[in-house]
Amino acid sequence: MAMEETKVRPAAVELSDLDTLEAESINIIREVAAEFEHPVMLFSGGKDSVLMLHLARKAFYPAPIPFPIMHIDTGHNFPEVIEFRDSQVDAYGVRLEVASVQELIDSGQIKVAHQLESRNRHQTVALLKGIQDGGYDAVFGGGRRDEDKARAKERVLSFRDRFGQWDPKNQRPELWRLYNGRHRKGEHIRVFPISDWTELDVWRYLAREQVDLPPIYFAHERDVVEVEGLLMAVNEFFPLPEGAEVKREMVRYRTVGDATATGAVSSNATDYEAVIAETAASRITERGATRGDDRFSEAAMEDRKKEGYF
Amino acid sequence: MSSLLRIATAGSVDDGKSTLIGRLLHDTKSIFEDQLSAIEKTSLARGDEQTDLALLTDGLRAEREQGITIDVAHRYFATPRRKFVIADTPGHIQYTRNMVTGASTANLALLLVDARKGVLEQTRRHALLSSLLRVPHLILCVNKMDLVDYDEDVYDEIREEFTSFAAKLEITDLGFVPISALGGDNVVERSTNMPWFEGQPLLGQLEDVHIASDRNLLDNRLPVQTVIRPMSAEHPDYRGYAGSVVGGIFKQGDEVMVLPSRKTSTISRIDTPNGAVAQAFPPMAVTMLLDDELDVSRGDMICRPTNQPTANRSFEATLCWFDETSSLRTGVAYQLKHTTRWMTAEVETLRYRLDVDTLHRELGVETLEVNDIGRVAIHATSPLFFDEYRLNRTTGSFILVDPATDLTVAAGMIIGAAGEATVATTEVVVADNVTFHPSHLSREERWKALGTSGATIWMTGLSGSGKSTIATAVEHTLVSSGRSTYMLDGDNLRHGLNAGLGFSEADRAENVRRVGEVAKLLADAGTVSIVSLVSPFKDARDRVRAAHEEAGIPFYEVFVDTPLEECERRDPKGLYAKARAGEIKDLTGVGSPYEAPESPELTTDPDLESAVREILGLLG
Fold first, then answer.
1. Is A34's CB within 8 Å of B610's CB?
2. Does the first or last residue of chain B, that is N or C, have fewer Cβ atoms within 10 Å of its Cβ?
3. ipTM, 2 decimals?
4. Residues of chain A neighbouring B244 (CB-CB closer than 8 A)
């Protein structure tokens, strides 16, 4: 009694790697939004925060994103990025909080040796003050574990004491998808929903979704000087070192940070496809290639994280 | 389509684990030049003889300075076929806590042994933890083959020793590879030093391991994370239940039940991040819309009315204690997180502590300390909606948090509801004189009194034909409808009843005979026995049929007629690849013949839905 009729097989019930990452990140964002009273999502206009915001929108669609975003503004900005940030606020209909490093300098709460020193480290002060002032108990950050060795050890939900500090040797075990975000008043939890994405994953996904990015992520002509192997943009935040030779080059940025400390890379990649090809072939990490501040010591990131950095 | 595979690695620095990971990253071009030059500097400053690839994974200052690994580190690499996430767990301190953490979400465990030392206590411990956490696949890498002159005998001996140990555990898929991580032999490229090894190099095995069927696709489970209600002009009436599917396949139009209210409705729509879909499966993050307005909130569980999880306040579990600063106290309130719910719970009884080296149960212990594993009875303030951990790693797991410190102090895996789960006995008693005692009850009396009727469904077909999947689905359907059913799986029986039998013609015949006897006894007792067994030889099957006919018990032979090419293409256990590589002999269809049934009660192809329907039709 063999069956003669042709059978229609059910569609494959499998997800691709990007769809799996997307589903896992959305699970984290929903879990935190549901369990915490006052979450906030950090947003720099950088590609990782753009990705996070995009995922947050998908997590709650068609309802609006149920928490505000916060920009830690060093005052040393690429104008294209600020313009982009504001356009995103409109597009997503989210509330933007700005924690300003410049204001803290002006009011004497941050001491600087000179106006043009890198403000990367000062961001920690502004960030912690922003968290305290807003009464936030959960802070979404776009950190990825492939970025840095210290980040490779970070939990998805990471506890911060009342001083905003991280104790890497005493982290809560994190099993299955059972996140423990319990904390007391004054303490908070950092949440890293895109922990498991790599730089290439981020680019592949943003390309697939055709998400807008600040234009500086794609190759453009710019006046740059080469300083200790980094291509630094010539602008108001970057005093020309003596004897430096200004070159006009096609460059793009792999990360967006404090304009005094973020370098560009030589590139002709003007669209997503070309950036992905370059990223796949790159032999240098994005932070190593572009961040002066992460190259001080092998543990630069760990030290800053313990103090409360992103 | 590129997929994602999570790997948990375990072992100490000495067995070359970090070197192996470094090698995988390096040979798949996942290490960057600036990372390499940074660790070269550190190695030089520390006075190492050569660059220590372990520094790539040891991320914290204290770890690099002391040359030890403290915490689980995550590493990433990708090939065109797969993205890999490695949870690298240290072997020497906090091994249980870290290994359990890494293994909890892993698809595959990668264990290393030093070819010179063979299987050590630590190897067995890691294998046990992998099995306890139900990591579906395990690969044992026999490393440092260069230091034993690439000797095949050394490899074979280790392989055999580990295979016999693993038989005591519940490891469903076990693979082996002889490697030299230092030289790169059989890591990414096939080794020219070991031409005798015909299997795949490690990376190829990692790319090929089949994980799609590791998920539970039968028991529909959606724990609700949050309710989406835009209440906007554009979407005034939208009300969706957002969560990640952790079991089964939900389809638009399905009838569903919401727990704990037990209200039922129909799925009107399934939204995903990328639009509406007809069906949703693990691990999709979805928003489910129902036809009726029900009161559903975070912590509720959506399932099928005919297939619900167990609801109980009291249950038995395996508990791993993690906290260094406190030990387990019975009768004290902890916070318990299960799926998307928090509740108060206490450990009522600590039944025993498990010695992870000997598997010995230590009775009469007072507490569990950090890195201890034990069996406990837990009582919660409200019912949990759970499945056994072995059936569902998400709905079967929980954590305990100490309300005094907010720390995660323990992780648990549910064995079953209180009273249901009993301590299994492994003792086998053999009598000298066995006499057959006829039961005082006739079969008719028994079946009538119990309101049941027994039968044997004998499913035969090639390895990978889909027998077990179909058998599992039939078992599920029958049990859900209240009919006593028991599945006898050939692979599983080889771990117990038929341990010791090989794959020679004689052993296979004996295997079939024993399974046939067990099926007949169960059927006699009133249960539907579903046998899933390759059983390639017609004679052996016919003898089972004759035994049933003699006893007057219904016997249905079902031939799962999946062509060899299709079985080989699926190769869920990797057997065909191994057989083609010459690693296993006598695989039915490759080195050993399969005699198709001449007049089975049913011939079916592997389409699950129709096969299940046809088999249920046989039973009437």
1. no
2. C
3. 0.86
4. 23, 26-27, 177
